[in-house]
Amino acid sequence: MQTGLSGFQIQFQDFQSDVMKLKFLIQLILVAGCTPVYAQWHNDTIVVNSGGLVSDWSVQTWNAANGNYSTVGSAGGPGSYGVFEHYGQSGNNNNSAFRNDGIYNAAVNGRDYFKGPGNNPGQQSIGGSVAPVFGELFLENGTGQPFDISNANGADIAGSASFANGVTTTVRGTASTGALRFRDNAIYINTAAGDAQYVNGYVTKSGDDAFTFPVGAQDGTDLRTLQISAPTSINNTLSVAYWNGSADSGLDPTTVGTQSLSSLNPSGITGIDKLATVSPICFWDWVATSGTSPLTVTVSIPSFSGNGGYASAADMRLAGWNLHTLQWDNLSGSNGATGNLEGSTITGNIIDMSNYGAIAIGNVLSFPLAVDILSFSGHMDSECSAHLHWTTAAETDIQAFAVRYSPNGKDYKDIAGMDVSNFTAPNDYNYTMPEVPAGKAIFGIKTLYKDGNAVYYQKELYLNSSCKLQDYLKITPNPTQNNIMISGFKGKSDVSLFDIMGRRLYNVQTEESALQINMENYPCGIYMVNVRDDNFGTKCEKIIKQ
Question: Domain Secretion system C-terminal sorting: where (predicted)?
Fold first, then answer.
């Protein structure tokens, strides 16, 4: 059945009732009448777009198993593009600007534009359970605006992707399954490649093309590309994600073996090509699902400020986690990095891409340290304080020690500085952190040298705290008619007030011990106060305004 719309053909297959046809015609009338519908587009109809324009279009949720959108074999012929503009709002995976549970194949002569919610800058997403196939994908939902690919099976690019947004996120926990996948000969274009525009998650490349993976850190602030040379076969598929953190910390969802930083290939000459260390700062997950091509690999290094001997670019090496020996191999031979500043590069060679499971940055020097920490221990007391103790054997040219804290092994902060005496004999240090937030508490020691370098002590201390922010933070009165007083802040805190719809009405950062919020002008109802302190502790409490 063909409508009067020029170049836009619609085919029905296996519809069982006139009611279903009527529903579809209603939607068609909306398109023909140019009625804007800024809502979710759910692919569960049968549509062939042969060179027409579908814009601001919402379709009812029908049987997802019948979903079929295609630009292949269009009546318009080569060069006649089927264009789909997406203006929908985005929430979670089931409430996306574009949710695909059927077959979406725009690989040939298809162009998809995500223009932002209601044609305004804002977050959009691709949801659903079946990966859509885009011919040309344009993410134009606003400069710096996030775009989420929450579809459980990711999305495929047959031609090109143009990033004119901010950070694009995939489902990291599903690794290559939920990746943004580029097929053979597919490319991407960045309008402003950098720390504000990259893919936070997994990117997959298939085929025999040289390719730069536009991946970055999980916190959305650090682009760290990985580039490969052209594989020797079209039957190669490689997925890559960058992780800010140690390769042996359990971040990697595809790890084989422990990826222990101390498991090093023993071959080579010390100081030349024998690995002495692997950096705990970062790594790239490497998932070669098919192919055995040899590859030249180049990565963009992060800032190594505060990582000791990695200040020497000549001694850095690219390291690969060997899936067969379960050791880190030196991939760079005797060649170092181009520099030690953030954005410098380091290159290595892989004989068989299927042999490795992770890429990291190593060093051929063992860094004899001017301080030798003999022990590091600690315990929690009944008042929710952590008591730390460490002993040094000798200290030379040391500026200070910094105590580091993390609630999860990923987000670290320096919580204290300790002056040193530069003794040549053993010396003891103690530090107490009060009111440690509930849950895991990970502590480390960083040695600061007078020349500006720093070294992280390789052993961390794992404690567990039962103290909660709720235990010492009080919000009164509740219910209230006018004001509420929040007291018991410890250090810097972020305070927000939300209404029952989740809209933030008030936000402030304070270093005072108490804060008053005027509720007088807010209507009666239920509100939520959220407090996050400087030690990652959180408190969320319901407030009733009478």
Answer: 477-544
